[in-house]
C-alpha cells in the first residue's frame, strides 16, 4: 500500500483547485495546527463525511513483560482516537465490492 504524503496531498489539491501550492500548504498546515490545538484543550474535531478525532483517556494499568515476566506499571495516558465517518466507510466498502465483482470475471482473480 502506498501512502500519500502531505506534500503530494498539497500538490493534488493545488492542481484540482487551481491555487498556488504554497497557499494550499499554508491552509493544510493551519488545519493541522487547529486540530492539534483543539485536541490539546480536550475537545474533539469532526470533519463530516471523513472522520472524527478525539482524545481518549486510558487508566493506569499493570502489564506483564512476556520475556521476563516482570510486572510493569503503565501510567494513565491520553491518546488520540480516530474513527472514520459512516458515509466514508460505506463508500470504501462499495468500491471494494465493485473491485471484487470485477475480479470474479478475471482468471485467477487478477486485477485488470
Notes on the protein architecture:
- With 112 residues, the chain is of the alpha+beta class.
- It folds into 2 domains: 1-43; 54-112, no CATH class.
- 46% of the residues lie in helices and 24% in strands.
- A hairpin with a 3-residue loop joins strand 1 (45-47) and strand 2.
- Helix 1 crosses helix 2.
- The two termini are 17 Å apart.
- The model has no long low-confidence stretch (mean pLDDT 86).
Short description, anyone?
With 112 residues, this protein is of the alpha+beta class.
Structural class: alpha+beta
Number of helices: 3
What Rg do the Cα atoms give? 21 Å
Helix/strand order, N-terminal first = HHEEEEEH
* Shape verdict: elongated
Number of domains: 2
Largest sheet: 3 strands, antiparallel
Task: Give the strand order of the largest sheet, numbering strands 1, 2, ... along the chain.
Answer: 1-2-5
| Strand count | 5
Poorly predicted segments: none
Estimated helix fraction: 40-55%
Beta fraction of the residues? 15-25%
- Average pLDDT score: 86
Amino acid at each position: 500500500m502506498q501512502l500519500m504524503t502531505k506534500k503530494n496531498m498539497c500538490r493534488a489539491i493545488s492542481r484540482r483547485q487551481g491555487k498556488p501550492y504554497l497557499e494550499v500548504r499554508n491552509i493544510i498546515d493551519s488545519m493541522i495546527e487547529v486540530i492539534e490545538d483543539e485536541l490539546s484543550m480536550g475537545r474533539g474535531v469532526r470533519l463530516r463525511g471523513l472522520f472524527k478525532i478525539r482524545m481518549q483517556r486510558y487508566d493506569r494499568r499493570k502489564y506483564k513483560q512476556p520475556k521476563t515476566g516482570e510486572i510493569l506499571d503503565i501510567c494513565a495516558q491520553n491518546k488520540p482516537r480516530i474513527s472514520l465517518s459512516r458515509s466514508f466507510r460505506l463508500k470504501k466498502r462499495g468500491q471494494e465490492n465493485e473491485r471484487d465483482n470485477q475480479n470474479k470475471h478475471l482468471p485467477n482473480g487478477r486485477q485488470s
